[in-house]
Amino acid sequence: MDTQPRQPADMDPSQARPPEEMAERPAPPDSPAPPDSPAPPDSPAPPDSPAPPDSPKPGDAHPLEPVLHDDWMEPEPPDTKWPKVIGIISLIYALCGLLCQVGSAGWLFVGVPLVGRMIGADIEAPGILKLVMVPQALLLFAVGVVMLVGAIGLLRRHRAAVGKLKTWAVLRLILLVIGVGASVMTLPAQIDLQERMTEAQARRAEEAGRSIPPGMSPDREALWTRGVIGIGIATGLAAVYPLFIGFYLSRKKIDEEVEQWV
User: Fold this and answer.
1) Helix boundaries (H) for 46-158
2) Do 122 and 199 form a contact (C-beta atoms < 8 A)?
3) Beta-carbon count within 10 A of 135 CB
4) What does the pLDDT look like over 63-114, one tens digit per residue?
5) Are 141 and 101 spatial neighbours (Cβ–Cβ below 8 Å)?
6) Please, are residues 151 and 112 in contact by the beta-carbon 8 Å criterion?
7) What angle do CA 21, 23, 27 make, to 5 degrees?
8) Would you state the pLDDT for residue 206?
9) CA–CA separation, 223 vs 245, rounded Å?
């Protein structure tokens, strides 16, 4: 049997290939596979994520809470009540003192002549009273302003307010001593003024046919005694609050607390 491959009849003999070549011709390759798509560039490896923090133990600060350091965080001042109490008392004390000084000066220039007209007498305050009491009232008024400013500052917890109140206490005690000397020096003039007013009242009562009330015309010695006792009582009462302010605000505990104020 002929095993040679046959050539097509319509093939040009010149194009015929030897049987050996035809036998060695490899089979047509399959359709080429599409080229592989280029691999994407290697993405950078994500950084190592930090390990989750350990769960906080009881008493430990939360990791999101800021850590407060004493070197830059000032402690909050303690909420004590004494600044409010002393501030209110000092404020009332100062206002009453200012009104008293205005009233004392007004009494010399307006009150005495007005009372004299009411009892039918031409009476004026002696010159020595005006010369001594008016400057004293002005000084006490100025010291009262210092106390008023200190009381308002103490209510606001200002550090300088304590120093103002201490200054007021010292000045008030100094003026109190001066006031005792001035009162004793002007006591004869005050007794003369009181005697003139008493005589005018007695004369008006006689003209109206009324009897003079007992004790309305005491002797001069009794007036001196009353005057000295009155000066002593007034001085003692006036010294209580300045002494209290001076000693209380000078305590070490108060100084340590005030250092934390603004």
Assistant:
1) 82-106, 112-118, 127-155
2) no
3) 11
4) 555 544 444 555 555 678 999 999 999 999 999 999 999 998 899 899 888 8
5) yes
6) no
7) 100
8) 76
9) 34
Find out whether 200 and 115 touch, Cβ atoms under 8 Å.
no
- Judge whether 202 and 216 are in contact, CB under 8 Å: yes
Q: Which of 147, 26, 37 is nearest to 95 (CA)?
A: 147
Residue 152: CA count within 13 A, CB half-sphere: 7
Residue 94 to residues 39, 86, 122, 258, Cα–Cα distance (Å): 92, 12, 35, 22
HSE (CB half, 13 Å, CA atoms) of 167?
Answer: 15
pLDDT in the model for residue 91: 97
pTM over 0.70: no
pLDDT digits (tens, 9 = 90+) for 120-158: 778 888 899 999 999 999 999 999 999 999 999 999 999
Choice between 22 and 140, residue whose per-residue pLDDT is larger: 140
Take residue 176 and report the two structure tokens written for it: 């109190």
182: pLDDT strictly greater than 70 = yes
Collapsed DSSP state (helix, strand, coil) of residue 124 = coil
Domain-by-domain residue ranges, the chain? 82-258
Torsion sign across C-alpha atoms 232, 236, 237, 238? positive
CA distance 196 to 188: 12
Q: Which amino acid is at 198?
A: T
How many CB atoms lie under 10 A from the CB of residue 2?
5
Round to whole Å and give the CA distance between 39 and 7: 48
